[in-house]
Design a protein that fits this description.
The chain has 504 residues and is α/β, with parallel strands linked by helices. Helices cover 39% and strands 21% of the residues.
């Protein structure tokens, strides 16, 4: 007797829930530990990160040992046979259950924790937590395709099969959503995942994976905090089949070289010097300028797909720049607990000093600042925390550092162009090729420009807004492979082709 889809779904949901123990332990939001084989594990050595908005020390976090890495890999390998054979419908339901527990039931506390460790304003942190839940629900109905070919002699079926153990290495700028994208893709496809958060922002990832233990079997999803030794240990470990890394180009190169020794599969989502092209036919200059400024300074400019270079058609350049400066000067900067804050601090001292280097270089070279240029909220006022007022530099030389390099902070160059061909050539004149945005009232024209840009993602009449439905990847030095969408789950798989010959 055939069963309806509803009956199948209900049965799958019940089976998924039967795999969870239903126990909801009280969560201590001030205590942090590794999660290995379903259990918290403290370490003999700890460290603490710093609140970037106050420079106050935060909580102690574990520094993993090589034995912790070995134990986590062993637990993942032990869990893999059963987890990989668990029906994908159940794995998907468990992802949603985990998402509800982490981002709905504990969403407020997780958001507050995220704000403390990153300095994000409330609305930015809220977007990150909400998008993390969206990743879980998006993957609920996502399935890997199969390709089938048949003739009189045989059937050939191409399938995507899980790799085994995946290490997800996460940066500090979006410690939850960048982790959850890799977690969802890895677990849905039947892999076991070990998360390594940045030592600058360990807390939210450690707590998120702790919450996940209510849902997943031991060893399926684990997390290790640590120092500079932890990443190399994971990359070199022979029991790990895949490294999925988001971070800098230089670190990505080192990871790729090390992975070659064990021929690990690798996904690298790296830096970008993302360009924005604003065409002369944009009628709403004020509105477009405001959106472009948001794209430059969202999360204090600390996003791989933030706009890093703005090219505006000469005919509207002055009006556009004035509107962009006016909007930027109206952005409130401050601590995450202050009402109406749009721009927070740079997340850590290392990045703070790097971004200050761009300010210094432009000032020393006589570039024209039309917005910002001060470290504190007001000139002469020394504010605690890693604050830099959002800055706009008007038409610096093309060869200048601020145009050629990724700033990853609240400073952006604005340049003019006469012809679209000139703008496209300038946009493509980069070793990076992550994202871009094109603004025009003629959508067909904007899309045609986008097709000529050597980047992985193009946004038409919007600043860069990564979405779990779309593949996120880069060209050139901006990465290898990518995350999100159907292609993102394929990245977590090997390909197996089965040739079945028919009986004669």
């Amino acid at each position: 007797m055939a069963h309806s889809n509803a009956e199948h779904t209900n049965g799958t949901t019940q089976e998924a829930h039967s795999m969870t123990n239903g126990f909801k332990p009280k969560i201590d939001w001030t205590s942090f530990a590794n999660i290995i084989n379903g259990q918290p594990r403290t370490s003999s050595k700890t460290y603490h990160s710093t609140d970037p908005s106050t420079l106050e020390p935060l909580w102690e976090a574990p520094i993993s040992t090589s034995q912790d890495v070995d134990d986590a890999v062993s637990a993942a390998r032990a869990a893999f046979p059963s987890w990989s054979l668990t029906p994908v419908e159940i794995r998907a339901k468990l992802l949603v259950h985990f998402g509800k527990r982490a981002f709905h039931d504990n969403g407020e506390a997780l958001t507050a924790l995220l704000q403390r460790e990153t300095g994000k304003p409330a609305f930015v942190a809220g977007i990150e937590v909400a998008n993390s839940y969206n990743h879980c629900t998006f993957h609920e109905n996502l399935r890997l395709p199969e390709e089938r070919w048949e003739d009189d002699e045989k059937v050939i079926v191409t399938r995507y099969v899980p790799m085994g153990v995946v290490a997800a290495i996460i940066p500090w700028n979006f410690p939850i959503v960048l982790a959850i994208g890799k977690i969802c893709a890895g677990l849905l496809t039947g892999n076991c995942v070990i998360v390594k958060p940045s030592p600058f922002t360990p807390y939210s990832a450690l707590k998120m994976v702790e919450i996940a233990q209510e849902t997943f079997p031991p060893g399926v999803l684990q997390v290790l905090g640590g120092d500079h030794q932890l990443g190399p240990w994971l990359v070199a470990h022979p029991g790990i089949q895949k490294i999925n890394f988001t971070g800098s180009i230089n670190t990505g190169k080192m990871i790729m070289a090390e992975c070659a020794k064990t021929l690990k599969r690798v996904t690298l989502e790296l830096g970008g010097n993302d360009v924005c092209i604003v065409c002369e036919d944009v009628a709403d200059v004020e509105g477009a300028a405001a959106q472009v400024a948001l794209g430059c300074f969202f999360n204090t400019g600390q996003m791989c797909v933030c706009t890093k270079r703005v090219y505006v058609a000469e005919g509207i350049y002055d009006r556009f720049l004035e509107a962009m400066v006016r909007f930027t000067n109206g952005l409130k900067m401050g601590r995450p607990d202050e009402e109406g804050v749009m721009v927070g601090p740079v997340q850590n001292e290392m990045q703070f000093e790097k971004v200050k280097g761009f300010f210094k270089d432009s000032l020393e070279n006589g570039h024209k600042f039309v917005a910002g240029g001060q470290e504190a909220r007001e000139e002469g006022e020394k504010e605690k925390g890693f604050f830099l007022r959002p800055a706009i530099v008007d038409r610096p030389p093309v060869e200048s550092r601020i145009v050629q390099e990724e700033q990853f902070g609240p400073i952006v160059p604005v340049l003019s162009f006469i012809s679209v061909d000139e703008a496209i050539a300038a946009a493509n004149d980069s070793v990076m090729g992550l994202g871009a945005s094109v603004w025009s009232d003629d959508i067909a024209k904007a899309e045609a420009i986008g097709l000529r840009l050597d980047v992985g993602m193009v946004y038409v009449n919007s600043f860069e807004k990564p979405d779990c439905h779309g593949y996120m990847s880069g060209h050139k030095m901006s990465g290898i492979g990518g995350d999100s969408g159907v292609l993102g789950i394929k990245e977590m798989c090997n390909v197996q082709v089965m040739h079945t010959y028919k009986r004669r």
